[in-house]
UniProtKB/TrEMBL annotation:
This is Monooxygenase. PANTHER family: MONOOXYGENASE YDHR-RELATED, PTHR39169. Pfam families: ydhR (PF08803). InterPro entries: Dimeric_a/b-barrel (IPR011008), YdhR (IPR014910). One of its GO terms (molecular function) is monooxygenase activity. Keywords: Monooxygenase, Oxidoreductase. Gene3D superfamilies: 3.30.70.100. It comes from the Bacteria.
Amino acid sequence: MSYLLQVDFPFQGPWGEEMTQAMKELANSITHEPGLIWKIWTENPKQNEAGGIYLFDTEQNAQNYLTMHSKRLNEFGIKPVNGKIFAVNKDLSLIDKAPL
């Protein structure tokens, strides 16, 4: 079974292409996180929020990443960090074209 991690937090930018350039090194490092299957980066400039949707191979790997990432964001003064972990229903998700 795989596990989805949903994270969001207050963010003042940069957005769009500027965010891509600023976060490219971080994105490359995230690919090496234990158990990561994929990540979708999210941004909402109108609400000054950013975050991501992650898919992990185990609940423990998702929790470990959430703990580490929350600490890292807090050290940058970013609070609160909202994170939720969900078990993925693979059969129903595949019906709706999930990239599993």
